[in-house]
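Changelog-linked ticket: magnesium ion example.
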Amino acid sequence: MDIVQLHDKKFRLYIPDSEIQKIVQKIALSLEKDYSTFKNPLFLVILNGSFMFASDLMKHFKLPCEISFVRFTSYQNTQSTGIVKELIGLNEDVSDRTVIVIEDIIDTGHTLHKIIQTLQKHNNKDYRIATVFFKPNSYQLNYPIHYVGKQIPNDFIVGYGLDYNGLGRNLSNVYVLHQ
Ligand code: IMP
Ligand code: MG
């Protein structure tokens, strides 16, 4: 299926499932290498978009680890609003933990900024960021992003957890807005 219709918009195939799986395996390998001497990292998954990445990633990460979820929202239609709301907060004690933040996509970086603020508020000093997709031309922060699956232009994409107004999260390929 090369074209999908979600609400009023058409999207065309952009990154096939096979490529995404390779990207995720590569991130898992890097994490295993970097975290082999750390004890029990906490994967902090940013809902909703990151659920598919988190599931695939953790199947490949064979070291002892834990998982927890937070939920933020910033997107409306196909644009970031710039206002990040916390819908599910952090309930874990992260003060003495190694945290790996799991993101589907980093766009402007507003959500990431909020997550980093939250971690700092909870006295965490040891975190790294892993994302499947990254839009460097849209990124407005200076925080380093430690694990990037694939850099993409400022196009709006759906699939592999990413949605357009709620639809498209269940697609295993990634699709881009068809002009
Ligand atoms: P940021 O706060 O602008 O970095 O955007 C972060 C969040 O916006 C991501 O975690 C996604 O949930 C959503 N987002 C950003 N770009 C896209 C896109 O191309 N398609 C769907 N959702 C996106
Ligand atoms: Mg997200």
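Closing comment: Example verified and attached. The chain has three helices and ten strands. Helices lie at 17-34, 51-60, 110-121.
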